[in-house]
Amino acid sequence: MTHIQFTPFTAPIRVAVIGYGLAGRVFHAPLVAGVPGLELACICSSKPEAVQKDWPQVRVVPTPEAAFADPAIDLVVIATSNASHHALARAALLAGKHVVVDKPCTVTLAETEDLLAVARQQNRVLTVYQNRRFDGDFLLLQQVLASGKLGRITHFESHFDRFRHVVPGKWREQDIPGSDLWLDLGAHLVDQALQLFGVPDDLSLDVARQRENTQTNDYFHAQLRYGSSHPGLRVVLHASSCVTSSGPRFAVHGTGGSFTKFGLDTQEDALKAGGRPQLGALGDWGADPLTGQLVHHAAAGLVTEATPDVAGNYLQYYAGLRDYLQGKAAAAPVTPQQVYQVMAMLGRGEQSVKKAAFVPTGDLR
Q1: Where would I find the Gfo/Idh/MocA-like oxidoreductase C-terminal domain in this sequence (predicted)?
Q2: Is the pTM for the entire model greater than 0.90?
Q3: Same domain as 291, residue 245
Q4: Are residues 305 and 169 in the same domain?
């Protein structure tokens, strides 16, 4: 991917959040406001009273175009329904704004490729919000892998199971482009797998509609196969909406030991409850009440040990982006190549469903 050139910011970076549903209200506005050097300057919403109740000092505009046309806005966050991402991000880039898009970047790889091309032409940043890189359990997993205690990794499972037996009447649950669970949670799990192991040789994907009256896929099971880069490694990515008693969030096995971790990162629930973390004053933010278990081979035989608590910190995504825009970091937290690879992997998964077979992915490296 071609490196873009832009003038680094020296003053606070003024941010507009487009959309004030779950993504904008819970995941973006509080995090932008919690990072020094970023200013939550504008929110686009059709319900200004809801915004003003939460953020009385922030200007509310009724249309995205009003935010894009504002010369004072530097960075735009697209936090709307998936099918709208392409058109809104494209318009923001053409208006000269840097852009964060909530995952998935777009509904199709072709749309993502178009946005990346426009960003290069405009010398503007296009990046995707991958907050699950900053889950406490994922940060812990990276530490465990780096320790070498598991040896060469042979099997990795990542589950994101929930129990949502009643189908809500929201856009994510409707039969419309971009509502598939594979595009939703799959975007997180694919990104994490790529961060850990890189691009696999091939993948297969199975999807299903399991709940009564569901209009879109609410289950997926993906298998990623690795060859020379990780001999014999098999990766399973799985999500379901019909699981009342979840198994491990992560289960990792290698030639030297195994690691298991139960529970989900606590930050989403804390943000839904109204939490407003502040970088530099986090306290117990992101603390994980459940330890992981590491069983590994040592001279005396198998050793079992509890892993330390590693706190998650979604603020680091926006802090990293701030640093990049200020010229203090070499890359955005999610680079153009990573944006492309995740969308391409999601697309190959959809191809696998149609073919009912493994689909090659090695060319995406």
Answers
A1: 145-355
A2: yes
A3: yes
A4: yes
Residue 2 in any domain: the answer is no
Q: Are residues 93 and 204 in the same domain?
A: no
Query: Quick check: 24 and 79 in contact, CB under 8 A?
Result: yes
* 222, pLDDT greater than 90: yes
The 3-state secondary structure of the chain reads: CCCCCCCCCCCCEEEEEECCCHHHHHHHHHHHHCCCCEEEEEEECCCHHHHHHHCCCCEEECCHHHHHCCCCCCEEEECCCHHHHHHHHHHHHHCCCEEEEECCCCCCHHHHHHHHHHHHHHCCCEEEECHHHHCHHHHHHHHHHHHCCCCCEEEEEEEEECECCCCCCCHHHCCCCCCCHHHHHHHHHHHHHHHHHCCCCEEEEEEECCCCCCCCCCEEEEEEECCCCCCCCEEEEEEECECCCCCCCEEEEECCEEEEECCCCCHHHHHHCCCCCCCCCCCCCCCCCCCCEEEEEECCEEEEEECCCCCCCCHHHHHHHHHHHCCCCCCCCCCHHHHHHHHHHHHHHHHHHHHCCCEECHHHC
67 and 155 part of one domain: no
User: Are residues 81 and 159 both part of a single domain?
Assistant: no
Task: Assess whether 91 and 182 both reside in one domain.
Answer: no
- Tally of domains in the chain: 2
> Residue 202: which domain range?
137-264+278-312+345-364
